[in-house]
Amino acid sequence: MTASSPDPTTPRERLQSARRELDRLAELERQYLDANPYRLRHAYDPRAGSYTVRAEVVRAIPPEVRDAIVNVLRDVRASLDALVTALASSVTSAKSPRFPIHESLPEFAQRTRRPLAGLSDEAQATIEELQPYHTFGGFHLDRLWLLRELTDHEPRLAAGGLRAESTLGVNTARHVEITGKLRVRAGAFEHEAVIVSVPARVTGRDPKLDLFLKPGFELAFDAQGPARGGAVIATLGAICDHVERAVIDRLESSPDVRG
């Protein structure tokens, strides 16, 4: 007699599924970046005294990347919903209960009475303590709120992201005078965005030879969206970690939360 396989609907199994998909996403990112999807265009404006480098996208992000992101978010969200189901002593509605994620206490109070009706008072109190509006600095900084926003709305990606460890240097011995700070615009960027701006006066015929740029790229969420241009892999990994450690571990380890 063979042992039965783990129930894929349990909170930890769903979260493990999300992490496996995150690993696949990281491989898709590596393959995309290895194909050199960005071309760098150097330019010097003598009137403005500015040397710039723009990033031109020559290969679009493949749809498989976006699908994998959606899959990660879906599985993480499902792990929270499975957690509520596992903690409930009974299910009071035809639909499976959802783990509530709200921006304010009044919203939580108004919308969670029925979904959490089958949970113990202790479990309900713990879930309320985990709500985004308790996060220092505002609910928009909370990872559960970010999960909700990225799940409820199609996540938008930037054209790419420049890693903070990208290096920039100028050979000041060759016809160039730096008049300001060297600056690499780390983070999300769009097609043809300026990622390097160097205030300088250049007198050589080929100023491009005087600039040394070693960029590092990554996939990033749209800068105007809820993830604020965060790196895709790091952002999704942080959401997975928060759900596991701050939510699942806490609720499953407490002897008082089961109904």
Features:
5-stranded antiparallel sheet; 37% helix; disordered N terminus; 3-stranded antiparallel sheet; alpha+beta; 18% strand; 259 residues
Describe this structure in words.
The chain is of the alpha+beta class and 259 residues long. Helix content is 37%, strand content 18%. It contains 6 helices and 10 strands; from the N terminus they run H-E-E-H-H-H-H-E-E-E-E-E-E-E-E-H. It has helices spanning 11-34, 63-87, 105-111, 121-129, 143-152, 232-253; strands spanning 38-45, 50-57, 160-162, 167-170, 176-178, 183-184, 187-189, 193-202, 211-214, 217-218. Strands 1, 2, 5, 6 and 8 form a 5-stranded antiparallel beta sheet that branches. The protein has a 3-stranded antiparallel beta sheet with strand order 7-3-10, with no helix packed on it. Helix 2 packs across helix 5 and helix 2 (63-87) runs parallel beside helix 6 (232-253). The longest helix has 25 residues, at 63-87. The chain starts with 10 loop residues before the first helix and ends in a 6-residue tail after the last helix.
